[in-house]
């Protein structure tokens, strides 16, 4: 009986530590380097959490349709080293984001550069496996 308990505990521990690794992905698994995109819109909010930051952006298309895009950026610590902070993008700020579309066609992209109204550009890239900056 103690062997069964030990095996169960070992299996549970393995699964618990494997879950975060499975949740993470490479750039190439989710985004297409052959589909660069430029998005101009208004910041809805910025989420500054691990493993990736996110910028939610309200974009109005040429036809007048309003879309909500999710832009994935690098980890908060990486962004801090590049000059970002939690208040870099306040709701309502107009920005231009250069990045790469999601492979699944959703309103999601991997962020590259974020241009602010004053012309300042912030680097939002993820530097993980397969990301353009990692090549």
Would you kindly provide a written description of the structure presented here, covering whatever features stand out?
The radius of gyration is 18 Å and the shape is globular. The chain has a five-stranded mixed beta barrel with strand order 1-2-3-5-4. The chain has a single domain, classed as OB fold (Dihydrolipoamide Acetyltransferase, E2P), CATH 2.40.50. The model is unreliable at 15-23 (pLDDT under 50). Helices cover 24% and strands 38% of the residues. The protein has three helices and six strands, in the order ααβββαβββ.
Mind sketching the topology for me?
Layout: H1 2-23, H2 27-30, E1 31-47, E2 54-60, E3 66-72, H3 76-81, E4 94-102, E5 108-115, E6 121-123
Parallel strand pairs: 3-5
Antiparallel strand pairs: 1-2, 1-4, 2-3, 4-5, 5-6
Query: What fold name stands as the CATH topology?
Result: OB fold (Dihydrolipoamide Acetyltransferase, E2P)
What is the name of the CATH architecture? Beta Barrel
Poorly predicted parts: 15-23
Question: How many separate helices?
Answer: 3
Strand order of the largest sheet: 1-2-3-5-4
Going by CATH, the homologous superfamily would be Nucleic acid-binding proteins
Overall shape: globular
Mean pLDDT: 81
- Percent strand: 35-45%
Helix-strand pattern: HHEEEHEEE
Q: Determine Rg (CA atoms, Å).
A: 18 Å
From the N-terminal CA to the C-terminal CA, the straight-line distance is 52 Å
**How can the largest sheet be summarized?**
5 strands, mixed, barrel
Whole-number total of structural domains: 1
| Residues in helix, % | 10-25%
Can you tell me the CATH class? Mainly Beta
Tell me the total number of β-strands.
Answer: 6
